Amino acid sequence: MVNLDTDIVVMSKNPDKKLYPASTAKIMTCLVALENVRDFNAKVECPYECFDEFSWNYEPFNPNFVDASTADIQPLQGNVTYNDCLYALMLRSGCEAANILAYNIGDGNMKKFIEMMNETAERIGCTGTHFTNAHGLFEPDNCTTARDMYLITRYAMDKYPGFIKICNTYEYDMPANELYPDGYTITHTNAMMRETSEFYYPGVRGIKTGSIYEYNLKKNGEWGDAIDGFCSLVTSAEQNGYSYLVVTMQAPYENAEGESGTHYSDHKKLYDWAFDEFEYAQIIKENEQVMEVEVS
């Protein structure tokens, strides 16, 4: 947890432990897009290559990639822009949107885009981050740290005003396709932004959720039993002129009582604590005379 006005870390626990980012990896996908796209109203290509790996019939089959979150962009859809993809990526956590961005910005080569993600992480100063895909679905070598995710997010916020504009948008109208001939509206996955949610928190701005219900590891060429998943979350909040950013990584998907959403509760408690306990105080004004001392 960092005070965005002063860059002071007000709370930290295992900040450099390598963990799985889930869809918070899309923050880096968004950043690389913002750095490299010049015309956000330009149309993108949506080839089957951007969708295939999420299919049950894809070879080689990967159970961690099926049932991926989607923004309902369709293969070969011709009216989708970079702007649409960015909102689909950050609001609805569309995995196909991540691949479409990677394909188009990587000149038809998604691996090239992933190299750009890792190069950007290194340039920013990340020391425990390695991305293996643009969408954040589980792969053993797809990792980051809470500190690195803060650095990535803060960099995007500082360099590109459009980043927080996208992240802080609750709903966005997507173009029509064969599923939705009249177009359709997507909403943000962050329950802290939804006023009807028990986790709603006034002043929250985005930023990105990342949840995996369960995942599988491969050993000796065979997929093992499913492992309980986790939730990562990056949010920022502002109240009474104070701003904070919180990154939590790999919280249990459900607690011991079977309740979900405890990562949201963690963020709410941290914000309540910070907004209640900390305030700015001017100790002395610049060039103010405090006292006089006699000198022999």
Core attributes:
296 residues, alpha+beta, two-stranded antiparallel ribbon, 5-stranded antiparallel beta sheet, 18% strand, 28% helix, single chain, 7 helices, Beta-lactamase, globular
Structural summary, described in words:
- With 296 residues, the chain is an alpha+beta fold.
- The protein has a single domain (2-277), classed as DD-peptidase/beta-lactamase superfamily (Beta-lactamase, 3-Layer(aba) Sandwich), CATH 3.40.710.
- It contains seven helices and nine strands, in the order ββααααααβββββββα.
- α3 (95-105) packs across α4 (110-124).
- The mean pLDDT is 96.
Topology readout:
Elements: E1 2-3, E2 8-9, H1 26-36, H2 82-90, H3 95-105, H4 110-124, H5 146-159, H6 161-167, E3 171-174, E4 184-187, E5 204-215, E6 218-219, E7 222-223, E8 227-239, E9 242-252, H7 262-277
Antiparallel strand pairs: 1-2, 1-9, 3-4, 5-8, 6-7, 8-9
Helix pairs in contact: 1-3, 2-3, 3-4, 5-6
